[in-house]
Amino acid sequence: MPVVKKAIKTVYLDTIPHVVKPFEFPALSSIKASDLPNNGFGNKNYYIPKTKFGHWPVYLRIQNTKITTEIKRLKGDLIQFKSDLLESVPGLEARHISVNQQTGNVNVKGDLVDILKEVFTQKVKSEKLNEK
């Protein structure tokens, strides 16, 4: 049987070079808060990180005759923290609490350092018991 060889013709086509476009971020005006991941934090909840030595960031501040208790490094919904603080500490009034949203500080009129540390510790213990 005779072997038939066919010639294959090579054809070169002009192709458009593939250009990779750089990633473009969407406009901020097109992003909604509900589209963001982890959008639940700061909405009716807050977090108080302890210091590197394991203490609550609650400090007594004395300026002449004015004595206040300062709670630092709060993250989240500080208004919710204020309302929870009013529920937790009997005899505390809303006018005695000032909240600084920018810095995450809360100032309470009077020396309540030991009371607040005890309240925070009890809340953490009760939350751990509820998780189990």
TrEMBL record:
Q: Which GO terms describe its molecular function?
A: structural constituent of ribosome
Name any GO cellular component annotation: mitochondrial large ribosomal subunit
Keywords per UniProt:
Mitochondrion, Ribonucleoprotein, Ribosomal protein
Q: Name one Pfam family in it.
A: Img2
One record GO biological process: translation
| Cellular compartments annotated | Mitochondrion
Has the keyword Acetylation been applied to this entry? no
The record's similarity note reads: Belongs to the mitochondrion-specific ribosomal protein mL49 family.
UniProt name for this protein: Large ribosomal subunit protein mL49
Q: Which organism is it from?
A: [Candida] railenensis
